[in-house]
Amino acid sequence: MITANRRQLLSGTGLAIVGSTVPGTAWAQGPVAAKPDLFVGTGGHGHTFPGPSLPFGMVQLGPDTDNARWDACSGYHRTDGSIMGFSHTHLSGTGIGDMLDVLVVPTRGKLELRAGPLDNADAGYRQRFSDEHAEPGYYRVKLESGVLAELTVTERVGLHRYRFPQGAGHILIDFEHMILDKWDTGALIAGASLALGADGMLTGSRKVNRWAKGRDIHFAMQLSRKPDRVEFFDGDEPAAKGARSITGKGLKVALFFDEAGGEPILIKTGMSGVSVDGARAALAGEAPGWNFDGAVAAARKVWARELQSVRVKGGTEDQRTIMGSALYHTLLAPTLFTDRDGRYMGMDRQVHQAPKDAPAFSTYSTWDTYRALHPLLTLIRPEHAAMFTRDLIRQTQQSPYGPPVWPLQGIETGCMIGWHSVVIMAEARVKGIEADYAAAWPNIRRRAFDPKYKDSESSLGRDHYYTLGYIPADKVWESVSRTQEYAYDDWAMAVLAEAAGAHDDAAVLRKRSLNYRNVIDPQVGFARPRFSDGKWWGAPFDPVQIGHMPKPWWRDYTEANGWQATFLNQHDTYGLIEHFGGEAKFEAKLDGFFNAPSTLPDNAPPDITGLVGQYAHGNEPDQHAAYLYAFCGKPWKTQAMIRRLLTEMYKADPDGVIGNDDCGQMSAWFVLSALGFYPVDPVSAVYVFGSPLFDEAEMDLGQGKTLRVRAPGNGPDSPYVQSVRWNGRPWTRNWISHAELAKGGELVFQMGRKPSKFGTKMADRPPSFGKVPG
Known about the structure:
Strand content: 15-25%
Strand order of the largest sheet: 3-6-7-8-9-18-13-12-11-16
Number of helices: 17
Largest sheet: 10 strands, antiparallel
Helix content: 10-25%
Distance between the termini: 42 Å
């Protein structure tokens, strides 16, 4: 358990956002792009990796230090003292591991076919390392064998440059390498093949049953120098002498050089989720020659442009580094999953053809990223938001489960709960992103109304939800959180029903979205387990517990407890306030939430981290909760808490993310909150004001539009908003719509040391459930 330091508030500087040209505004020394530190998040439980990638690229190349513990979900942890090798695919910030395809091990001495354990750097092919350097698009490290390793990428190709000392050396390609987990059963690799062509190209394919069970991956690899000898292996067993190909499960190939020194050995590896031919095409189209430095320069140029999308001024040097690092991490996923010819493996395990302007993607951590990452992208990358929306519509059509929850390389993992891709699609619809939403509706409707429609683990208990209005704790695990999150998906599906012309369905779904109340007991004021006979669990009820636990590993909340689930509702805040008995009781409940003892039971999952009272910033369920004060007329409490979270929950060092970064969600929370606003309910397409961290900020919105944010009077001890002006005019509302921000302009927060009455009037409070109070 990681518990935040409960000191009194405020260390930081203040202001936020980004902007469009306003006449008469002078920017002598304006905001600039913050430089990211790619090692932020690679320590602690951040689970990020430091290797090179292009924005949303298919190939995410990098060093692997471990593949067999929870903090190795990305294959890398900053505290590990040895490197296994360099693989071509990684997950950034997830709480479950997979990928690590095609490990390349450059070394000297005796051939070792296995890496050896993490606690013995002298075992197997592990190597100690030094002089590690990472920047967007480029990575470099010195291995103890004397090899200097350099890495860069194109979208679908990983490029390596290895400088060996004089003498013999070899490069091992470990095609058995992957994430391992103590819960794994059965054959993790269902089948694999390797072949060395007459042209010297090494190709391979494998089917992996790790997290995304049954995913296929293919590669094509070329070397700049021909090896003197090649040996294939299946496990520890060598293939027949002179073999040029091999099939099996634990495949490896060793490439020997009698003299590895002199000119560096370059490797380029094309990847595909469709076929070896697709991987070959990636090589031919994206890396036809051997210009490693040119590829580095091209990657740096792409990232320089992307990281210019948010620029800041003020704050501390560390805060600016955190901003740059967070922005970088928001641009890693979803990941491209389309070959150069437009082909991709669909969720139905069939090969499809994507339109040129709407490629297919993978790695949608929707349970996490619908909250802040996708809303951020609708602002700074609207063209990508549109591509992701159209892709999710296709995936909804193709998947046997309908709307996805956690699709990875054409496989629905069913991870987490709900089917929150509908939230991403609904948000896009409300924000005016054009797409064929009606095409997704038939399968969304099945998920919404048909209890016999195929379920993954993410959607269990729908039959009870439809008939009882909640999921009984004695029938389905994580029943409380499921009820609440299914209700939020109802709210999103109502928008998509309207888009499809299904107005009666939309009305039913809006009404049903209030089911979240059925697991919040107004007598005790907490979300709590409820059984099929209607009775509540717990007398007395302890909200710190994670459930009634009738059997091992049974929980009634998803990575949360009774405190955290109580504030899970995002779309009906005024209804929740009423359910609690009014504003005063709701405010007192929020105060209790942020000031309760930061204790957790022994059986709490490790994801509940970053505690302020019982609020857990290191996990997603209640990351909007600090903004709820704005709905009960106490926005200054939101402002103070947001500033505290910005300055206490993020650091400019490897252990700088308080929980898993979750494909950029933790980072996106920082980016948006540091700019001064946050989407409590993304489907509403409005942002609630918080407390900007930087004195000035600019955000490019595309099509030449810019959003500027200034915060005069800001400082470490001035977190409170005194007044707001939008494009030079007084703005009394404590929120602003996406439609307004997306036009570009200038948002000015006048900051001060003491709370003010700004935004407290009923008419100025944020809308919820489609209406403003009053």
